[in-house]
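Good day; I would like, with your permission, to put a structural problem before you. What I wish to show you is a protein chain and, alongside it, a tokenised description of its three-dimensional fold. I would ask you to consider whether the tokens describe a fold that such a sequence might reasonably adopt. You will find the record immediately after this paragraph:
***
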Amino acid sequence: MNVPELLESVSLLVPEDSATENDITVRDIWDYLVHDEWEIALGLLEELGDGRSLPLAFWEKLADAAEQLRLERSATWCHWRCSEIRNGVIRADLTLRPANEGRRTTPFSGAGVLRPMWDIGHLSPTGGRAVSIARLWVEDVPCLEPGGRATVRLVPLTPSHWTHVRPGQQITMHEDRTVAGTAVILEVHRPATAMTAG
């Protein structure tokens, strides 16, 4: 499909009563599509998708359109949202250790590149700490500096390891044996398959 066809099919997956924070609706997006304002339409569809739970096909088609338009960050975000639907997502308030207290001395990209280990309370067969891996996306900022604090989105590599995690729980981030940061869980959303199976 070409970009206009993809964006049209994506817009059909959004309930008509949906609106962005600025009261932009699907009907407004159709006006942008009629005038070949594809980048604007794509950005608004992303906003609508962030406001509610939409099917995997919404994000897959939106990612395809963003790739065809060469909008790298949008494509990365849409692929990220696909992985959230497949693996679940945990939102948390993360505080990194300052550079003089931790291993990390430079900022890292907030766009889902980092895959740190997390101590979420599991023990190894020998009784030691067991860690689980989750990719990390930083909300609202392009990167996070040592000592920085931000809301993050975690997509577990193995979702079954994270079923006991609850809002209010504190977990620690590791890039090696030392603690790189501390996070407090804000929200937990299970994988879409887990929700439909249960």
